[in-house]
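Can you please make up a whole protein chain along with its backbone structure tokens because I've never seen that pairing?
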Amino acid sequence: MRRGLELAALGPAVGDHVRVGAVILSPDGTVLGEGWHRGAGTAHAEVDAMSKVDPAHLVGATAVVTLEPCNHTGRTGPCAVALLEAGIGRVVYGVDDPGPAARGGAERLRSGGVDVVSGVLADEVEEFLERWLLSVRLGRPWVTVKWASSLDGRAAAADGTSQWITGAAARQHVHEQRAAHDAILVGTGTVLADDPSLTARGDAGELLADQPIPVVFGDRAVPDDAAVRRHPRSLITLPGHDLAASLGALRDHGVHSVFVEGGPTVASALIAAGLVDEYLVYLAPVLLGGPRVALGDVGVGSIGERRRLDVLSTTSLGPDLLVRARPHRPSQPAAEPGIAGSQNDRSTT
């Protein structure tokens, strides 16, 4: 299963697809073939792995897959049927497919006489697929909110100037994060005030291979000559004031993750609505004072209503500091002795 995760990581990290890896084993445990999903419209990991194996050797073999084999016809046929037709005798997978259309492959395989084992290394697979799984389960993209500020929490000087609070290393890290998300979102206020290009660029200003879809939220029109209209990806505009509905619309566009650089208004509204999954806060060792704070009203009226975060990491980027955090999750009670044993016994597959 861990080899399946290594294979899955070879697939593209962004796009309207899920990264899956598969390993085909003979009855004696010999690896017969390996495969992974290379993007929307390409063969799924199971089919890719089986294509590298003599069909005669597939009969009675075991398929180890990071995600439950799909049970629907989309851009490709159902993997559950392909496994049945190949004569695979056993299927082992990590987590259930949460998609209403795709799930059910395990039951279809069992009905066809295949031995199916689920939940192997489920925690590791869940972590690897967390953005995609959340987007399918909740019907909205994974939301990462980013801001850069001084140590006293200001996103700009009193006169509104903000270029540059952070140094070159922090700014380049931001571009890499843009490229690692399906879309980048700002409000119309940011477009009108800063005219950002919303592209992901390298050290020399060149466009990176992966470009996020530019998204502008708000009712004001985006000017015809705005830099974002020259983006290599087509602009999506989301009028209105319903952030949850707008995020749902992005999911309908195939967006599974969105990077929010929209300024204090949009960021604060997303936080207040409980729609943020991760924070990237770039702190510069400067003091600015004044009214230009990084966040506005996030729905906290008293200290008891504070929004607690769990800091996952702190990283030095030149003179700056990156704080990566997520909404606080209460600690889970420890499992009773013996309860997790059977799961652990299976997790070495």
